[in-house]
Amino acid sequence: MEITEVKVHLMNEEKLKAYASMTIDGCFVVRDLKVIQGNTGIFIAMPSRKKPDGTFKDIAHPLDNETRETIENRILQAYKDAVAGIKEAKKEFQPPVKEMTLDEKMSDLEKSLEDKFSKI
C-alpha cells in the first residue's frame, strides 16, 4: 500500500485542527480523517459516524499497527507542512515596517497636537 496523496484542510478550532483526505495507490480515497489536539498531543481520528446511542463507529480504519503508523505519519507531516506554509505565507506578505526618524515622530506629534488644539 502506498499513500500517493494527502490533502489537509486546516480548521480554526480548539481541538479539531484539520480535516484530511488521503489517496491510496492513486485509486482509492479516504476522506474525513481528523487531526485532533488531545490531552497528550495531536492524533489522527479515522472517519466515523455517530450511532443512535451517541457513540461513534469508524467507517474505515487500518487493520494493523504498521498501516496505522504509516497513515498517521503521512497525515501529521502534511498537517505540519500546511501549518508551516501558513506561517511562512504570513511572514512573506507582511508589509515592511518603516522606522520613523525622531524628526518624523516629532512632526507627527506636532500635527496631532495642532489638530486637537484647533478644535478647541
Specify Rg, calculated over alpha carbons.
25 Å
The CATH class is: Alpha Beta
Tell me about the largest β-sheet: 4 strands, antiparallel
Order of helices and strands: EEEEEEHH
**Mind telling me the CATH superfamily name?**
Stage V sporulation protein G
The helix tally amounts to 2
- What average pLDDT do the residues reach? 87
Q: How many domains make up the coordinates?
A: 1
State the distance separating the first and last CA atoms: 78 Å
Spatial ordering of strands, largest sheet: 1-2-3-4
Question: What do we call the CATH topology?
Answer: Arylsulfatase, C-terminal domain
Helix content: 25-40%
Structural class: alpha+beta
Q: Which geometry do the CA atoms define?
A: elongated
The count of strands amounts to: 6
CATH architecture: 2-Layer Sandwich
State the assembly state of the protein chains.
single chain
